[in-house]
Automatic annotation (TrEMBL), chain B:
Signal peptide: none annotated. The chain crosses the membrane at residues 38-58, 78-103, 135-163, 183-207, 214-235, 262-282. Coiled coil: none annotated. It comes from the Bacteria. This is ABC transporter permease.
Amino acid sequence: MRTWLAKRRGWVITAIVLLLVAGGGVVWQAVTAPPGHTTEDARLTVLSGPGRDEPVELDTTLYVPASTPAPAVLLAHGFGGTKDSVRESAEKLAGQGYVVLAYTARGFGNSGGEVHLNQPDYEVNDARALLDWLSRRSEVELDRAGDPRVAAVGGSYGGALSLLLAGYDQRVDAIVPQITWNDLAASLFPNNVVTDDPGPFGVGEPHQGVLKKSWAGLFFATGMGRGPTPNPACGRWAADICAVYQRIVASGELDDEARAVMAKASPKSVLDRISAPTLLVQGEADTLFGLDQADANARGITGAPVRVAWYSGGHDAQGAEADRNRVELLTGQWLAHYLKKEGDAPGGSFTYSTVTGIRNQQLDMSTLGYKADSYSGLSGASSQKVDLAGRPQAIASPPNGTPAAISSLPSLGSLASLAGSAGVGLDLPGQFAAYESEPLSAPLEITGAPTVRIKAASPTGEATLFVKLYDVPDNGNPTLPNGLIAPVKLTGLATDIAQAQPIEVRLPGIAQRFDAGHRLRVVIATADQAYANPVEPVTYTVVVDGPVTAPTVTASLLPSEDAIWQIALVVVLVAIPAGILIAWLTVRYRARRRVRNLVEADAETPLVVAGLRKTYKDGFVAVDGVDFRVERGQVVGLLGPNGAGKTTTLRTLMGLLQPTSGSLTVFGHQVTPGAPVLSRLGALVEGPGLLPHLSGVDNLRLFWRATGRPIEEAHLDEVIKIADLGERIHRKVRTYSHGMKQRVAIAQAMLGLPELLVLDEPTDGLDPPQIAEMRRVLHEYARDGRAVLVSSHLLAEVEQTCTHVVVMSRGRVVGAGEVADVIGTGTGARLEDAFLNLVENVGKDS
Amino acid sequence: MTVTTARADGGAAGYSPGRTLTFGTEFRRQLTRRRTQWTLALLALLPVVLLLAFKIGGDGESGGNDGSFAAMADLGTAGAANFTLFAMLVSSTFLMVVVFAMFCGDTVAGEASWGSLRYLLAVPVPRGRLLSVKLAVALAYCVLAMTVLTGMSLLVGGIVYGWGPLRAPLGGEVASPEAIWRVLAVAGYLTVTLMVVAGLAFLLSVLTDAPLGAVGGAVLLYIVSNILDAVTALGDLRDVLPTRYTTAWLGLLSPEAQTDDMVRGIVVALVYGAVFASAAFWRFTRKDVTS
């Protein structure tokens, strides 16, 4: 195991670093995860229906926080969802200390009953029964007996439920309805003609509009439920609702019964009864329930504090992460104040955001958050008029709306709004009239629903038109903000445009920046895929009549909510230089301490090896108790068969290996990695280490530069002469022969004429005359009080070159002394005989 | 021949640890390499190649909707700033990753493979110093590479397409002097995010004697991180992936600069870079050099 580890040390370290990083990620996850809670799944049978006496079974999960009793949150899901689709929100709320009751609405998932579309007698009564149940739970804080401290939170279908519940049950203490409707009839049959100030949806006249057929169809299909059904036409829909749906979609028109059913399912009918503080969150990317729905809700609730927030998501898009975080934060503040009575009253300030770009490759939207002191409705705090130019134009309504323009793609999520911004929302030739403004002289930030007056003439007296506002850059594609369009259904029109009366149209609510130099383009078009279009072909004449009135709001940028990361940045920017400084000071301190580390007795001895032992990480003992000395004036030969430990000894001498035990001193200074005394040592160990792309002389010069010592100490010319390098020294090293490289490497070792020269197989690759010359050079070199340590296989060579020899075998010194003395230990007259004798003896010992 | 007098710490007369292998020396050592010269030349030529591609390709329809990429390509000829951004977009995802990995991954492993590392250590260049200088020089070349690419792109783009305002992919414009600052900020941000690759390559460079292994390993792990980033099932865990915020500089392209993601990106990159580099130092100052 140890061996295995040692051999794969590099990989092991890489793996450990990566594991640490992954561990950091997991810790990060754990730290950011909400605190603990327990859950309790139950199928509750509650009494509901018109008389509150019809049992229905509801699938619920109760999330209980660590500390109870606590205020409760009734969490309702969106259309087609179940209690599981709100699990993440539920866990977060439970983490904030609320008892959360998530439940699957009747007609969905594992709950019983049929879909009644938030009818007060059914879905609302179900929720009221759940409040009763909550009031009996010991975990839930009570306002008084039977009255739990509770908020209703939900999106879309669940959002409308929270509004309706607050209207029908005064026990609700706060609500946070998100991306939901005010008037279901007006949402599914929108008609953006302004008939009655201040809202687009006048009362009195029975409502008629253009059927939002793709959304209606999607809505209905979702309510069918999944899997086999005994009723193929209606699925899990209640029979009366199903019948209404089939009638209105077939005719494309509302009738009185449909209006009555939808009115009962619309918060509009109960807004004046709501006393629970309401935080209305509406999506800007929502072709189903637009900003006008939240606006109508905000205006209708008069008996309770109301706050409005828009974000970049909705039924068509998830919205930017920063935006979702903002909504979460606002919800948290709202509940904390009105349920837990913690924190200041949230106030009525209005927050929204504009899409400014894409954030990264995942196409996550980048948004800018804004905050205005108060909500001023879709008409804005003030408005700006932008003139449009254009003449009356004939436009054709195709038979049965085929072909039709595509403004949005419901149910495709974020794709839907991208369709608009990517320019899919193009109009079909002949089916539209466009009216453009001059380029804007200053950026225009529209926050609200712009209005424009149009005139229309129709041979039948009726017309279905779609009015759109494009952002047109001077080059590039026009964009239709979030794919939102304003359908209008007109009756009683003149047949001649000259006699037509102006009609005011409210365009969809948007929060969009139109940059300077861009133009506003109002398009009046005849057919749209998302809507039911007239069956008979007809040609209208249309024209805009006056400027676009663009609502604006005075708002300031919201501060970044990424404060933690900004703090982290500061910490990192301080910590890294500080870490470097500390490391540098530590290294300096250690280096100073080492200076005192001198063995006085050996201060004049070039090399003393004492008890040197080196065990490699894989357990191999390369050198086991080696002792020898090299004195001034000596040329010492280090002899030994392969694997004797010569190279390990020399590597340790260069400070490359750390000895396991024992010591190695050069002029009395302990050799450690990077010990300054190494500068008095020149070495050639295990072949040359030259930069192949440089010439020999450049190699020598650059090597000397790396020592940082003055060039005159190098004795460059002298060394080049000694090594007999000649003219070839100016050619690149990669063209050199083996012998030439060897000679340059010897020259490199000799640079600065070090007091101890260590050469490993120096004659390797040299020819006989060069070997003879080398012999002479080494003798010369040692004469001035320097010393040379040569390791070699060539016994005859060593015999002629060296004054002393050290014979090693299997990691030990088996013989040492003057050459003559060592020869004397053998049987013959040659060093070879003595060597073989010494080496074989070791073999016998062991 | 005379014997030189020694210093108190045992070093030769002219030797001082603080003067060994200076930044300048190492910079020259690297600069003499063909590899360095070719890389810098290639980066200087890249804008010209892109320009030719734009000229030859003409105004062809950009097929499909590739989001930011197509949008940036469409705007590439709008001016010096957009041209530079396009050059950076196409090179930041792979080319610059390889360049950074090469400068930082080859620096120690390359010496080991030549056999010159042991002679540098026997000079002796203190190990910590050797590594510091090598890292500083490698990073200097990384910055130089980015500077060459940015500078040449701005120059080429400016001469051919003019110094018009920066046009953002989702609409909006940034006026000219500000636009150049934005482009430089993007270059700076990319340099910082690539510190992850730089740090990892440097660590691998210390761990292995094969330069290709170090460079390839760093690039490979970078790609793996990119793949993990595409696995949405990982959820919030992806927020701390080293490649999570590599495209956050798109936030600088809107009229109001968006810096939240860039702040995150800088923090993540610097933390990873520092961890990897520290591991390299920790390992190198303790290891047995056997190359």
